Amino acid sequence: MSYRQVLDEAIGASPLSTIDVDGVIRRERRARRHRWAATGTAAAVAAVIAAGWMLAPGGAPRPPAPAAPTVAPVPGTLDDEIRIDRAVIDAVTRVAPAVAWVRPLGVADPDAPTPLPHPGGVDLDTRVLYQKAGRIAADRTEAVLEVQLLRDGARFFRPRTCDATALAPDLVCAESTGPAGEPVLTLERRLRQTGRDDRRSGQHDRLVRVLRSDGALVTVSLSSRTPDDALPMTVAQQQAVALDPAVALAPLPPGMVTPASPGLSTSGRSADQTRIDNAVFAALRRHVPGVRGAGGPDGTSADLRSIWTDSGGENTADAYWGQGRILVGTAAGVLSVQIWRADPGIFGNLSCGKESDVYTCAAGTGPHGERYRTVTNTGGTAERTVEVRRRDGSWLAVTLDSDQDTFPLTVAQHQAVAFDTAIALRAK
Q1: Residue 213 backbone zone (phi > 0: left; psi -120 to 50: alpha; other: beta)
Q2: What is the C-alpha separation between 335 and 414, in angstroms, rounded?
């Protein structure tokens, strides 16, 4: 399966920030101008004081004014967001002094290995979430660095994640503990490929995720698209940033109300998830004769239900995710089904790019008037996805991955499962 899907299955999805970026930038620039102006004024006042005001009649110096009290950061404010920005920059500079910022921290970079956004997102600020990305470089190697802090993140951290990543052989997974016993997850993937013109391309993604003792989840991701697949930070440096105590959300003051995201709701999960599971199994049996589950490390034939799993965080009243390894004859692959009630953001794109020797795409209209596209990637692990936007506005993606040269489903069978109207969220 794709790196993004394996990450979401293994570690649970986290919401993307939907902060008004342009507004934040404008406010931050105004705040900086005000701070610079205040700094200049304060310096002038200090000079005047030093020249004579600190001397009382008779030449006796006055005692210095008491230091201003430290103001606790207030979650949800621009100052709190800037505080975390500085903490991230300080942490990176301290643990990786050779790193330079090619582009400063800002909104999440579309190239970063970001988990899928939850549907129906609202304006989330540091009361709930911090998420910024920038581009860094070291030794002529660049990468996107993304940092995400999620306050109520314990529900999205899955123990024994590395057991689940066996579904994707190109992933390297490691689980450890931090200095205070915090669970630390590290996931990494490298891909290299050569096109018909002998031009090399590469991809190197690494994610470090830490579950703090207060339940907050810290994620530090690096993503590079350079042919030599290098990253400008080591694993240890990346983990050090994720474990830095200053890189943290501020405690919520008593009585502060936090915005709620519909994607974080767990209502309506159990019965509805089972109903959709059954609809997926029925569609597979109807359109793919002889389909079975591939159980165990050797892919032994098994019942579909026994191999089907969920990602936890993505199964809500407004989203569904289920997946499992299937077997048709001797061909096996991981099939995943995702549904979103609302537009899934940048992952809801139904346009096709330029085809190549490792990428093909076809878009059209399905039997029920739904728009769809079928995308096949054969660079590295072979992957085919049918993405559908239904007429009710919901989105569905059925993804199939294979380590072999052939997929266990034909294109027609794959599309028939994706077009099956029974695989749907319950109407509201």
Answers
A1: alpha
A2: 10
Neighbouring C-beta atoms of residue 213, cutoff 10 Å: 9
Above 50 in pLDDT, residue 370?
yes
Query: What is the tens place of the pLDDT at every residue in 99-120?
Result: 999 988 875 444 433 333 333 3
Cβ(427)–Cβ(341) below 8 Å? no
Give the Cα separation of 193 and 195 in Å (integer). Answer: 7
Alpha-carbon distance of 232 to 220, in angstroms, equals 13
| Residue 22 one-letter amino acid | D
Q: What share of the chain is helix, strand, coil (3-state, %, to 5)?
A: 25, 30, 45
Q: What letter does residue 370 receive in the DSSP assignment?
A: -
Can you tell me the distance from the alpha carbon of 363 to that of 385, in angstroms, rounded to the nearest whole number? 12
One-character DSSP codes across 139-174: TTEEEEEEEEEESS-GGG--TTHHHHGGG-TTEEEE
Residue 325 near residue 307 (C-beta atoms within 8 A): yes
426 vs 155 pLDDT, higher one: 426
Q: C-alpha distances in angstroms, 30 versus 34, 131, 356, 428?
A: 6, 21, 46, 43
Q: Is the confidence at residue 38, as pLDDT, over 50?
A: no
pTM: 0.52
Task: Check whether 362 has a pLDDT greater than 90.
Answer: yes
Contact of 156 with 13, CB cutoff 8 Å? yes
CB 41, CB 33: distance < 8 Å: no
Q: What confidence score (pLDDT) does residue 178 get?
A: 92
Q: Report angle CA 167, 172, 178 to the nearest 5 degrees.
A: 120
Task: Render pLDDT for 321-350 as a digit per residue (tens, 0 to 9).
Answer: 888 889 898 888 889 999 988 866 555 678
Q: Does residue 210 or residue 259 have the better pLDDT?
A: 210
What are the backbone angles phi and psi of residue 301, rounded to the nearest 5°?
A: -60, 130
